[in-house]
Design brief:
CATH architecture of the largest domain: 3-Layer(aba) Sandwich
Radius of gyration: 26 Å
Shape: globular
Length: 394
């Protein structure tokens, strides 16, 4: 009942303010949620690490520990989105009659719940519900049913392994993601992001080390004592996954799932040495949603580098490291083999580079590769088509 009254009072306050003053987001992760829901233009203030699209003008308000409360008051926002636990610091804001919503983002479930709550506050509850369902589907698609679970050490130190170390425990958003896709977190702690001594690091004995960062970081620490004694370093299984908003527990980080799965697969196949040690997380396509009916012609328009070719390569099954779902004739692309996809999709790239001097007949024969084993009648038919009088074309 108390929860219901509080929500009702908050909604009333938002209506009174009319959201005329816009939104202040004091959490980079929540800023990502607002942007993901298409409401970036309603933001008027964010923290120093928040990211908004180009062209959106916002006031930077500092960080969690040096928040400029006076600047928040001057903005006169219609709503402030803040981290649960800083209520005392924002008391002046609430005393001024500005509604504040406190959110939790420590765990996977908290992030998804906060996403839906933000959607409700923005008047986009249905869209938020749909996006959360998509994120859950991404997670489900990457789940591992059985098999050995390697021990993974996630590091979030911005300066690498040798800097003041901040590790990710199983009791955190990133730790939850690891567990969901079939890995064991090397750090078991009730604290979401604990610090470990060098002795604690050696005791963790990880099979794989993944350094998460927003910028490319050196992995030379693996060559130094005591890190060189770690199994992951000895087996060439230390990686740096980096990219913008990597450290924002929110919708963008779900793009990390295919990369984590790729690393786990390489470890299971004893082929981690073949993977690049620095993997950049890039979100080339985002929230693409369309359907093509039989007989339809659809044109994909956009400037160079916008992702047109990447989209086609995903639909054709050439690129498999993507999140979301693609259905071909009612069948999930992720569940189809390359041969099955080739029977459903024809893909003609802009440039075809061949180092083998195929004849026309040999090139046409390649199109029958997915159907091998169906008998020779169709192959003979191709040969007969190609045996048309060639002088006609001369």
């Amino acid at each position: 009942m108390k929860r219901f009254c509080r929500i009702s009072a908050l909604v009333f306050l938002i209506c009174v303010h009319g959201m005329a003053g816009g939104i202040v987001s004091l959490l980079p992760s929540v800023t990502d949620m607002v942007v993901d829901l298409g409401s970036a233009n309603r933001l008027v203030g964010i923290t120093r690490y928040g990211v908004v699209p180009a062209g959106i003008s916002v006031t930077r308000l500092g960080g969690m520990y040096d928040l400029n409360v006076e600047a928040v008051l001057r903005l006169k926002p219609g709503l402030v989105l803040a981290y649960h636990g800083v209520e005392t610091r924002l008391k002046p804001v609430e005393d001024a009659g500005i509604p504040v919503e406190y959110l939790k983002i420590n765990t996977l479930n908290e992030v998804l719940s906060s996403y839906q709550r933000v959607g409700q506050l923005l008047g986009k509850a249905e869209l938020a519900k749909k996006r959360v369902a998509e994120l859950k589907a991404m997670l489900e698609a990457e789940k591992k049913e059985s098999g050995p679970k390697p021990s993974v050490l996630l590091v979030t130190s911005p300066g690498g392994l040798a800097s003041p170390r901040i590790y990710v425990s199983a009791n955190s958003f990133y730790g939850n993601l690891l567990s969901e896709i079939g890995a064991k977190n090397a750090v078991q702690s009730k604290v979401a992001y604990p610090a470990l001594s060098r002795e604690g690091l050696l005791a963790a004995a990880p099979d794989i080390i993944i350094l998460l960062s927003e910028k490319k970081e050196a992995l030379t620490d693996c060559q130094k004592v005591p890190f060189s004694f770690l199994k992951a370093c000895r087996n060439n299984a230390a990686f740096n996954v980096y990219g913008a908003r990597m450290m924002h527990p929110g919708p963008m980080v779900f793009q990390l799932l295919p990369i984590l799965k790729r690393i786990l697969k390489a470890y299971a196949e004893h082929s981690t040495a073949s993977l690049p040690k620095h993997i950049k997380l890039r979100n080339i396509l985002n929230s693409v949603d369309f359907s093509a009916k039989s007989g339809e012609f659809i044109g994909i328009v956009g400037p160079n580098g916008s992702g047109k070719t990447t989209l086609l390569r995903c639909v054709a099954g050439i690129l498999r490291d993507f999140s979301g779902k693609i259905d071909l004739d009612g069948q999930n692309l992720a569940e189809l083999s390359s041969r099955q996809v080739a029977r459903l999709v024809s893909y003609v790239p802009q440039i075809v580079e061949t180092v083998i001097p195929f004849t026309v007949i040999e090139f046409l024969r390649l199109s029958r590769f997915p159907y091998q084993g169906m008998g020779s009648r169709r192959r003979c038919r191709i040969l007969r088509v190609c045996s048309v009088k060639w002088e006609f074309f001369i």
